[in-house]
Amino acid sequence: MKSSNQNNSSIRYLLPLLAGVSLLLFVGCEQTTPSSLGLAPLPGSGKPVARVNGAVITEDSLELLERTYRGANFTREGLLGELIKRELLYQEAVQKNLLEHAAVVRQLDTARRSILSKAAVEDIFANAPLSLEDIQKVYDATYSADGSSEYKARHILLKTREQALEIIGELQKGGDFQGLANDHSTGPSGPGGGDLGWFGPSQMVGGFADAVVALQNGEFSGEPIQTQFGWHVILREDSRNLTPPAFDSVKDKIKSQLQRKILDTHLQKLQKNATIEIVAETVQLPANP
After folding, report:
1. Is the pLDDT of residue 72 over 60?
2. How confident is the model at residue 2 (pLDDT cuts 50, 70, 90)?
3. Which residues pair with 231 in a beta bridge?
4. Torsion of CA 210, 215, 219, 220, to 10 degrees
5. What is the pTM of this model?
6. Which of 45, 78, 189, 191 fits a disulfide with 7 by CB distance 3.0 to 4.6 angstroms?
7. Nearest Cα to Cα of residue 289 among 116, 272, 275, 259
8. Which of 285, 147, 283, 167 is nearest to 224 (CA)?
């Protein structure tokens, strides 16, 4: 195998980086392990690209490493050199019976559970495939007319309804909204005159967003608006229409959101049917996994 100074200098930093990647660390090489190591060959396929004391490193393993570190400027030659180094260290660890060390056993078990958990998730998604129509429905609902506008508003946050009514009275007499926000608002936007900038309805709590949408540009709320944060007096300064993002630009994001819901539903079912005992007094079982 050829080498170069560039390969050596770049690959020096790869070994510590890869040390924490359990998937690659434990299954990176398809091995035909020498009988002297006392290990059965691991199943695998792919064209051999190197042998280390009889253990085979396959093209599949090298391609996996290339995909994992695509764009990191590691040469193919350098990555193969890294796989060879790791195989040498692996064989030495087996010869020294490091596989029997308690810490190693725990790490291997953690890696095994992580890999199998990932495989279970992939199986769940494979058995609940999402069509483009499914994604399109969510896209249409998300970017409907109700979500095609955004608003610029200010607010004055107060602790009581009575205080909010007093502020509304001041505004009705011609009071300056920004000045009143500076003097009375308890919210973090108070020093900035209550300015909230531009936002979409989904970015604000329901009651607040509904009040903003109901107002006209330049109009303030004639009644205090209550949320979990307190009582608000709102001034809608402006509004503008938004062009929805192209379907292709958000379809992957929507698919991930739908898959998250599928996984959450599946996990809730598993948790409901499982016998789970929390033995640590300071830890509580979450309501939804």
Report:
1. yes
2. very low
3. 158, 226
4. -30
5. 0.53
6. 78
7. 272
8. 167
**pLDDT of 254 higher than 80:** yes
CA–CA separation, 24 and 61 (whole Å): 9
Cα 13 to Cα 269: distance, rounded to the nearest angstrom = 44
HSE, side-chain direction, 13 A CA sphere, residue 127? 8
Q: What is the pLDDT of residues 183-239, one digit of tens each?
A: 999 999 999 999 999 998 888 988 999 999 999 999 999 999 999 999 999 999 999
Q: Which of 192, 149, 183, 133 is nearest to 163 (CA)?
A: 183
Structure tokens at 218: 């330049």
Residue 31 token pair: 């091995």
Mapping DSSP to helix (H, G, I), strand (E, B) and coil, where does residue 157 land? strand
Report d(CA 285, CA 262) in Å as an integer: 21
Q: Which of 41, 14, 18, 19 is nearest to 30 (CA)?
A: 41
Nearest to 171 by CA among 231, 233, 254, 101: 233
- What single-letter DSSP state applies at residue 227? E
pLDDT, residue 277, reads 87
Question: Reduced to 3 states, what is the DSSP secondary structure of residue 202?
Answer: helix
Which residues lie below 8 Å from residue 22, measured CB to CB, with a gap of 6+? 107, 110, 111, 114, 115
Long-range contacts of 105-110 (CB under 8 A, 24+ apart): 107/22, 108/26, 110/22
Cβ–Cβ < 8 Å for 186, 159: yes
CB 279: neighbour CB atoms within 10 A?
5
- Local structure of residue 204 (DSSP, 8 states): S
